[in-house]
Amino acid sequence: MCKSSMITMTRIETMRAQEDTTNSCYNYFQGGKSTKEGIDLKARKSMVSWIQQVRKALRLSSETSWIATSFFDRYLSSGKGRSSQALDDRYKFQLAAITSFYIAVKINESAELSVPALAKLCKGYYAEADIVSMEEDILCALDWRVSCPTPMEFARHLLELLPEKVDSEDLLQACRKHLDQTSTDFYFTFCKPSVVGASCLASALTGTDILSSSERQAFWLQLASVTDLIEVMEAQKQLLKGRKPTKSKPSAVSKKSSKSISTSKVLSQRNSIIASGSSSPVCVIQTARQA
Q1: pLDDT by residue (tens digit) across 115-133?
Q2: Which domain holds residue 278?
Q3: Phi, psi values for residue 102, rounded to 5°
Q4: pLDDT in tens, 79-124
Q5: How many domains are there within the chain?
Q6: Residue 176: inside a domain, yes or no?
């Protein structure tokens, strides 16, 4: 093994040690059943989809969606603060998801999404004070553990183990699409970032001939030394059950802007989301109540 590969393997092992110290999730829906307020897997998927829609509208990183979803799931699994109330109150359930997105943007993006802008993005349904209060509750429930390796960080490091001939950018684009799929699938809530990242990369490699049989075997051997290979294979199987990413090259994620997102821009993006038929948090609440 060359020196660069050894350095990469060491970094991955360090990241794995870090992910082991992060709060784990449990099935807070108790086997998929809805809570007494009708909050269930469908409600969670609606909120994760909303997070992804807003993230795309604001041209933010796909990792921000994953981070926000991770905060949301970990908070509801924590049993701390007002997390149990969020599972029995649609208003607080959605507020937790929206605030998780807000925290993720603050941590992972150089662009700024202010509380007033977020409140207006939600049509004023949530007061600024509610968002600030929920942010504090989420951070305390997570013991302020908001820095954890993401699946894409693992994928990027694992890509360094592949031959130089491999077009890493194309594979990363495919990994980002798979990552969005993992966020909406509750199965991946219980998987570690290393497993999610490795399964996304393995799925991106599936069906391609960019690696020879010997290169593929060498990669899986390296993968087995830094991840739980059985869990990766099970996660990949789960990923491939759903719709595979299209073969067309996805639009590149824009570079982070050092400028703040103005309120007018956020409102403009919000209007675009609504016009395209996407569900805002308010719409999701109204739909749930009518059901």
Answers
A1: 999 998 888 899 999 999 9
A2: 33-144+261-290
A3: -60, -45
A4: 999 999 999 999 999 999 999 999 999 999 998 899 999 998 888 8
A5: 2
A6: yes
